[in-house]
Amino acid sequence: MVQKWMIQDLKDRLAEQKQDALTEFLARYQPYDLAEMLIELEENEQIRFIAELPIALGAEILEYVDPELQYRILDRGTKETAALLLNEMSSDKVADLLLAIHPHQAATLSELLPADYREKISSLMQYPPESAGSLATVDYIAVRNYWTVEHTLQHVRKVGQDAEMVSYFYVLDNNGKLVGIVSLKQAILAKADSRLEDIMLKDFVSVSARMNQQEVATILSNYDLVALPVITDEQRMIGIITVDDLIDVIHEEATEDFQKMGGSQPLEVPYFKNSFWKLFRKRIGWLLILFVAEAYTGNVLRHFEDTLSEVIALAFFIPLLVGTGGNTGTQTVTTLVRALALGEVKPKNIFRVIRKEVSTGLILGLCMGVATFIRAQILGVGFDIGSVVAVTAIFIVIWASLIAAVLPLVLHKLRVDPAVVSGPFITTLVDGTGLIIYFSLAKLMLNL
Amino acid sequence: MVQKWMIQDLKDRLAEQKQDALTEFLARYQPYDLAEMLIELEENEQIRFIAELPIALGAEILEYVDPELQYRILDRGTKETAALLLNEMSSDKVADLLLAIHPHQAATLSELLPADYREKISSLMQYPPESAGSLATVDYIAVRNYWTVEHTLQHVRKVGQDAEMVSYFYVLDNNGKLVGIVSLKQAILAKADSRLEDIMLKDFVSVSARMNQQEVATILSNYDLVALPVITDEQRMIGIITVDDLIDVIHEEATEDFQKMGGSQPLEVPYFKNSFWKLFRKRIGWLLILFVAEAYTGNVLRHFEDTLSEVIALAFFIPLLVGTGGNTGTQTVTTLVRALALGEVKPKNIFRVIRKEVSTGLILGLCMGVATFIRAQILGVGFDIGSVVAVTAIFIVIWASLIAAVLPLVLHKLRVDPAVVSGPFITTLVDGTGLIIYFSLAKLMLNL
Asked: Where in chain A is the domain with CATH 3.10.580.10?
């Protein structure tokens, strides 16, 4: 964890302008920690800090910060440093940076890159956000099937410094098609004169550039891989996606689902980067939809106005009954939406899910029925009303379990994101329908 | 994706008992896919399938299935096959298996392992679940600081086949203390006669065996690593944690938080592995706590019984007003609990969070106030009651935003898991307090 005194120490050493003091400081920390410190410096200190660093370390640190800061540092420093840093950064990060800034600024920055590398990066930039292509880096090691292990390792010694990952070599044919993968482990364990075509893995896992990032993350975690090749429909190699980028995707997707389950649209950037106006826009939509859906509870209550004025005590239990139903529904729906996202539950399992949830709902309902009856007696509303609320509790809990089980699975089947059935959504749905159950039972059981 | 016809194909080939047909089949699929198929086979087919496979592949496939199935296969097959498979499986998976089965069964299985390996595994089994130690595997490559790169690579060629991961070598001193790390990439790029002490990384990231798995996952994702060494308090090397195991942890922790945010206790195993009785036990606790908390809404309503019977129309808006408050609170709380889990928001940011949430709540409240007023006019309850409900909407939304902003941060500060402030929790809290706001405003504004 980066502490205040570390940042102060760094500031002092930068002010002193002694290279030794800085070098000694750098040796003590990891690139990630240095990036965390960089963020806390003043702008002129940031520029000076990056300028003082070895290029490889500077580039690595830059990769940890967000594109705005990357751009500010590259733009304010000298052109030479910017060119060196940009060339050293991994190509997926450069593509992200160029996409995040103004096209004019991006054009100026791109000119610092050699023409062929610039072209590769602009091809990465074509892929839509959240696609496999957009996550790919071109800094992988390409090899040929007729190479020997010895030749390959010599090649790696030459180009390995620039590669994002040297754990795998990708065997391409004359047309740039990916025909096999050799791991560095295999190469080390094989004889020096073995040819790659004899040791390469031909049945490898790869992903299409158009595949959604969530699917890519699932494949990577299922198959326990640390990198995945990305290919075109014609099997042409585009680049690789590394596990560290996919861990970010896994976090991102879980965060999105979290926010959806809470009844807002997902935020695209970390919490504090959103203005209150942005937070407002992400939330007002669902609030209004839920408001309209909830509004008909007014009609329900007005419809039962006579029943209500006759037995005003029925009103006491409205929040308790619909609240309990909403809570049960929320429990079920969050469990199922997550299980669907992880692939633990599939739409075809709907009847198994219904059976499980309704059985659970039945015993939960019985417990809550007893609790409600006791509560009614404590409030002193008598045996009759107590019975009505107890029976209502049982029915509402089972009903909430049922719809919370059915809706996410049906939506998933219809290819609608099941996370739209949020906690607030199910609560709202149970509020209105629960009231109908309540007052219908009351009329029936109290002969009103 | 594994399809039904693939499983049928496998069953047919197993029945035919021709080794060629099986070998041809195996070449077409990844170990993970074969594991998915294994699960679908009959028990006698499972035993036969594993027995027919090369040991290394069999062990890899077994690592993908759950401990019960692992045990059943090891127990029913021959002792020789079981011993070979167990020795080939990675040590963290063996430790997990031995912990999951009955101690008697575990003792019998352990006897199949060589004594020194058995001892290493039983030391891994001491660490509590969810700790770094429990995730560690001892199948890493240990090296000495005076070795040359050439000697090291020779050593790797000898032992590399058994290692879980060959991307890093761990430099241990005479006492088993970890003093440095050399990556395979570094070794390949260095000169053959370089000594490891000259190229090894001395300031490496490591974790203590007692560290919680969530913290380990955060470190691994922040520092973009693919493996982390686990050490004792005395810097002694215990083993390594690999990125694939930590991806499982990341999924697990997000799932737990999901279920907590939905107001249940987290399930320890995938959805369908829980009996309905288990689901019931995970849910009833919070339901009853929330029931008790919600029950006082009855007291609030009885307290305002006179107001209510005088203006029965006030009852029409109860679900709408408390529902809207609950929805706003749920939106805020899910966003913040997730942001806290990712470290985007820290408890010290509390005033910044309050400012942001209350500003957002203010404009959300104004919008909902207008909506409520319009809804009241449509229901035809008159200007007076319309004004009461509109003003109440504004206050309830701001109030819900405020407590939903404060509670998770305060709990986090008090080292209580902020995810206990679930959607249902905040909804319940807003129900009761919202009613007090509503009826107090009604009495005040309508002079009741």
From this structure: 142-242
Contact B264 A299 (CB under 8 A): no
Half-sphere exposure of A218 (CA within 13 A, CB side): 13
Residues of A in contact with B337 (CB under 8 A): 258
Extended strands (E) in B226-345? 227-231, 237-242
Residue B160 pLDDT: 77
Q: Interface pTM (ipTM) of the complex?
A: 0.83
Give the three-class secondary structure for B330.
Answer: helix
Q: What is the distance between the alpha carbons of residues B121 and B91, in angstroms, rounded to a whole number?
A: 6
DSSP 3-state of A346: coil
When CB atoms are compared, the residue of B222, B226, B431 closest to A32 is: B222
CA distance, residue B104 to nearest chain A CA (Å): 31
Q: Which helix (H) or strand (E) holds A170?
A: strand A168-172
> Going by DSSP bridges, is the β-strand pair A178-183/A168-172 parallel, antiparallel, or unpaired?
antiparallel
Amino acid at A391: V
Smallest CA–CA distance from A358 into chain B, residue: B276
What CATH class is the domain A4-126? mainly alpha
With beta carbons less than 8 A apart as the criterion, state whether A44 and A15 touch: no
Q: What is the pLDDT of residue A133?
A: 93
Residue A18's pLDDT is what?
A: 80
Topology of domain A142-242 in CATH is CBS-domain (3.10.580)
User: How far, in Å, CA of B441 to CA of B384, rounded?
Assistant: 12
Q: What is the mean pLDDT of residues B237-259?
A: 91
The C-alpha of A199 sits at a distance from chain B's nearest C-alpha, in angstroms, of 14
Query: Is the CB of A264 less than 8 angstroms away from the CB of B334?
Result: yes
Q: Do A297 and B284 touch (CB under 8 A)?
A: no
Token digits of residue B394: 């504004």
Give me the residues of chain A with pLDDT under 70, please: none
Q: Could you please report the per-residue DSSP string of B273-300?
A: GS-HHHHHHHHHHHHHHHHHHHHHHHHH
Which secondary structure element, helix H or strand E, spans residue A86, and what is its range? helix A79-88
Euclidean distance between CA atoms B436 and B145, whole angstroms? 71
Domain range B272-446, CATH architecture: Orthogonal Bundle (1.10)
* Other Cβ atoms closer than 10 A to B15: 10
Determine the residue of chain B that is closest to A376 in CA distance. B298
Can you tell me the distance from the alpha carbon of B342 to that of A270, in angstroms, rounded to the nearest whole number? Answer: 9
pLDDT band at residue B312, thresholds of 50, 70 and 90? confident
Residues A301 and A314 sit within 8 Å (Cβ to Cβ): no
Alpha helices in A304-381 (DSSP H): 305-310, 318-341, 350-379
**Shortest CB distance from A271 goes to which of B272, B294, B344?**
B344
| CATH 1.25.60.10, chain A: domain bounds | 4-126
Cα B308 from chain centroid (whole Å): 47
Is the pLDDT score of B7 beyond 80? yes
Residue of A291, A299, A398 to mutate when probing chain B, most B C-beta within 10 A: A291
Instruction: Flag if A157 and B188 touch (Cβ within 8 Å).
Output: yes
Alpha-carbon distance A346 to A413, whole Å?
Answer: 9
A335 within 8 A of A357, measured Cβ to Cβ? no
pLDDT of residue A171: 96
Residue-averaged pLDDT of chain B: 91
Beta-strand (E) ranges in A28-92?
none
Q: How far is B394 from chain A (nearest CA, A)?
A: 13
CB contact under 8 A, A330 and B262: yes
